[in-house]
Amino acid sequence: MGAANAGTILAQISADGGGAIADAVVYAIPASGPASASQATALMAQENQEFTPFVLPVQVGTNVEFPNRDSFRHHVYSFSAAKPFELKLFSGKERQVVTFDKEGIIALGCNIHDNMLAYIYAVPTPYFAKTGDDGKATIANLGAGAYTLKVWHPTKKPAAKKLS
After folding, report:
1. pLDDT for the residue numbered 5
2. What's the number of CA atoms in the CB half-sphere (13 Å) around residue 99?
3. What span, in angstroms and rounded, lies between the C-alpha atoms of 132 and 109?
4. Is residue 112 in a domain?
5. What's the whole-model pTM score?
6. Which of 12, 52, 88, 153 is within CB 3.0–4.6 Å of 24 for a Cys-Cys bond?
């Protein structure tokens, strides 16, 4: 894909009252269909008894590492249909990796610390971004063609719009 035909989507996600929505996943699916699986690696850390980041968008096929940066153990799990898994008690430099090979929402928890909650959202496209605190996201380097633009947030209803 050359720069001459590359496009960019600038998204602004806000609530009904006008306030910016952070941590929304914005993604564009080409009309030609889903892309091949990713070989990328991403991180979902445990730090200060929290998952970091709260929302992690990845392309289907991405390997996610779960480093524990706390001085105590965590027991990470998900019962989500898109990727049920369990990383039993671990701490320190142990390398825990999970491949997210199916599209969908994966809610994470810790069996030791009930307050820990986060989401991984595996999307079928390499064209995605997450909104910042200002509610803005940028998806760059889109090829020419039609796309369906979708938005997901853990506390909002999903939305979609066709773009040409």
Report:
1. 56
2. 6
3. 23
4. yes
5. 0.89
6. 153
The reported pLDDT for the residue numbered 37 is: 77
Q: Locate 23 and state its tokens.
A: 């941590």
Amino acid (1-letter code) at residue 154: P
The CA distance from 12 to 37, in Å, is 27
Q: Which domain holds residue 104?
A: 36-123
For the stretch 114-132, what's the b/e string if a residue is b when 16 or more beta carbons lie within 10 angstroms of its beta carbon? eebebbbbbbbbbbbbbbe
> Rounded distance, CA 108 to CA 85, Å?
9
Q: Does 43 lie in the same domain as 89?
A: yes
Could you tell me if 152 and 103 lie in one domain?
Answer: no
**Residues 105 and 47 placed together within one structural domain of the fold:** yes
User: Which portions of the chain are predicted below pLDDT 50?
Assistant: 1-4
Residue 136 Cα distances to 26, 71, 87, 95, 149, angstroms: 10, 35, 33, 33, 15
- The residue length of the chain stands at 164
What CATH number has the domain bearing residue 92?
2.60.40.420
Pair (49, 112) in one structural domain: yes
Cα dist from 144 to 1, 4, 72, 140, whole Å:
9, 10, 49, 12
d(CA 77, CA 86): 4
